[in-house]
Design goal:
Number of strands: 0
Mean pLDDT: 88
Distance between the termini: 72 Å
Helix content: over 70%
Low-confidence stretches: none
Radius of gyration: 22 Å
Number of domains: 2
Shape: rod-shaped
Number of helices: 4
């Protein structure tokens, strides 16, 4: 049984570049990180690479900076 599991793991490694147990560990690690994220961190992660999100963030920062100067 162990030999069969080792052969399957080797095949997974060759085909996918990662074994199933390692894949499970990676997914669990990422899930744990996501669970511990703040809402702002999660929003930033989901928005990465979205040009519209990046423009929106830039605009909001500029408005807050301008309003802060006007109030101060």
């Amino acid at each position: 049984m162990e030999e069969l599991e080792a052969r399957i793991a080797a095949l997974e490694e060759r085909v996918f570049g990662i074994s199933y147990p390692r894949a499970q560990a990676v997914v669990k690690r990422i899930a744990d990180q996501v669970t511990s994220m703040t809402q702002d961190q999660a929003i930033e992660l989901l928005g990465m690479g979205d040009p519209e999100y990046e423009r929106a963030v830039k605009l909001i920062r500029e408005v807050k900076r301008y309003v802060g100067k006007a109030e101060g």
